[in-house]
């Protein structure tokens, strides 16, 4: 009996395990994208709330609000890292490349979710930029009213 047969048998027995592992990774990827979509929905609502708080100059409200927004942003960063890790485990550099190797129905589902994540991320970035401009204009207005230049203004640490 040849030593090639046991090696071939072992490879054949490992193939279903690898397929199961890939299936689990694809399920985790799909679930992760769904979680990112939900996370970006939360972040968008938080950014809208932040804009209202900034507009009304509700400093106490901002102090209570901002930690939740930072937490949501950190959670989204973690989810993105997990997605990137899954793609690496699958031997892919990006989701589009992975989808080119998947059955059409699964690829379409993953791509639709990925496009939604990207759209939501762009919307959140635009809203965050708008909030930043609003904050900067309020700071400038305050400095003008107080008659201080940015280098003279040093608030006390809490």
3D architecture notes:
The protein is mainly α and 158 residues long. It is 83% helix and 0% strand. The chain has four helices and no strands. α1 (4-55) packs antiparallel against α2. The longest helix has 52 residues, at 4-55. The N and C termini lie far apart (79 Å). The relative contact order is 0.11. The model has no long low-confidence stretch (mean pLDDT 89).
Key terms:
mainly alpha; single chain; 158 residues; elongated
Briefly characterize the structure.
This protein has 158 residues and is an all-alpha fold. It has helices at residues 4-55, 59-89, 95-99, 104-146. The relative contact order is 0.11.
- The end-to-end distance, rounded to whole angstroms, is 79 Å
* Largest sheet descriptor: none
Mean pLDDT, nearest integer? 89
Poorly predicted runs are none
Helix content: over 70%
Number of DSSP E strands: 0
Structural class: mainly alpha
> What is the overall silhouette?
elongated
Determine the strand fraction and express it as a percent band. Answer: under 5%
Count of DSSP H/I helices: 4
Which helices and strands, and how do they pair?
Blueprint: H1 4-55, H2 59-89, H3 95-99, H4 104-146
Helix pairs in contact: 1-2, 1-4
């Amino acid at each position: 009996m040849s030593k090639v047969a046991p090696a071939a048998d072992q490879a054949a027995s490992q193939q279903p395990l690898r397929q199961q592992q890939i299936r689990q990774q694809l399920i985790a990827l799909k679930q992760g994208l769904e979680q990112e979509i939900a996370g970006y929905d939360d972040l968008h609502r938080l950014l809208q709330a932040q804009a209202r708080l900034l507009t009304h100059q509700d400093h106490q409200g901002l102090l209570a609000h901002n930690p939740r927004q930072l937490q949501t942003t950190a959670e989204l960063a973690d989810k993105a890292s997990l997605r990137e890790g899954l793609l690496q485990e699958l031997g892919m550099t990006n989701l589009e490349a992975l989808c080119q190797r998947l059955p059409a129905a699964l690829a379409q589902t993953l791509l639709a979710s990925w496009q939604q994540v990207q759209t939501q991320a762009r919307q959140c970035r635009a809203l965050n930029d708008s909030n930043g401009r609003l904050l900067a204009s309020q700071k400038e207005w305050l400095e003008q009213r107080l008659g201080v230049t940015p280098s003279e203004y040093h608030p006390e640490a809490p």
